[in-house]
């Protein structure tokens, strides 16, 4: 596995969800086009520190889904079903979290609350689903620290 960031790993994992497949899925910047999704990281917190230097961390993020908005309730119901499918998929996949690079191990991904609805434009609406990823960050390798401190060339 190439060394990719945690949000990139999350994005690749979320693309497996049938509710998000086939649309535009960007990072950080919210798309205003209907049928687009955005992953926005919100912040990272250390939950536990271990004696060996390892840490249990939490990354909070939002999944933003843009859809059509208007007088047509069928579109709104379709969007609600899409969000319900996403939440069900996240809850079902709790035991199969994404693979992370750099020795990190995902422990849990879960939605934190219901998706909030905001009007995004004249014909589009934005649903924001707050979530969290809990993962284990291994301790730094003592060999790497030794190599930095050692002034001698090694082959």
Give an overview of the whole structure.
With 155 residues, the chain is α+β, with helices and mostly antiparallel strands. It has a single domain, classed as STM4215-like, CATH 3.30.2000.30. The protein is 24% helix and 37% strand. It has three helices and six strands. It has helices spanning 6-14, 73-92, 142-149; strands at 24-27, 36-49, 55-68, 105-111, 116-119, 124-137. The radius of gyration is 19 Å and the shape is elongated.
Q: CATH fold name, please?
A: STM4215-like
Tell me the β content: 35-45%
Q: Which series of helices and strands comes N to C?
A: HEEEHEEEH
- SS-derived structural category: alpha+beta
Which stretches of 5+ consecutive residues score pLDDT under 50? none
In short:
This protein is of the alpha+beta class. It has three helices and six strands, in the order αβββαβββα. It has one domain (6-149): 2-Layer Sandwich (STM4215-like).
List the helices and strands and how they pair.
Elements: H1 6-14, E1 24-27, E2 36-49, E3 55-68, H2 73-92, E4 105-111, E5 116-119, E6 124-137, H3 142-149
Parallel strand pairs: 1-2
Antiparallel strand pairs: 2-3, 3-6, 4-6, 5-6
Descriptors:
155 residues; alpha+beta; STM4215-like; six-stranded mixed beta sheet; 3 helices
């Amino acid at each position: 596995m190439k060394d990719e960031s945690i949000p990139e790993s999350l994005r690749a994992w979320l693309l497996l969800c049938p509710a998000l497949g086939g649309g535009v899925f960007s990072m950080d910047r919210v798309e205003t086009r209907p049928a687009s999704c955005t992953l926005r990281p919100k912040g990272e917190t250390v939950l536990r520190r271990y004696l060996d230097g390892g840490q249990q961390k939490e990354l909070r993020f939002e999944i933003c889904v843009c859809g059509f908005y208007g007088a047509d309730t069928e579109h709104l119901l379709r969007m609600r079903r899409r969000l319900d499918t996403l939440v069900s998929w996240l809850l079902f996949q709790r035991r199969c979290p994404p693979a992370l690079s750099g020795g990190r191990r995902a422990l849990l991904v879960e939605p934190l609350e219901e998706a909030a609805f905001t009007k995004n434009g004249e014909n589009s609406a934005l649903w924001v689903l707050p979530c969290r990823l809990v993962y284990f960050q291994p301790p730094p390798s003592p060999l790497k620290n030794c190599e930095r401190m050692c002034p001698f060339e090694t082959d």
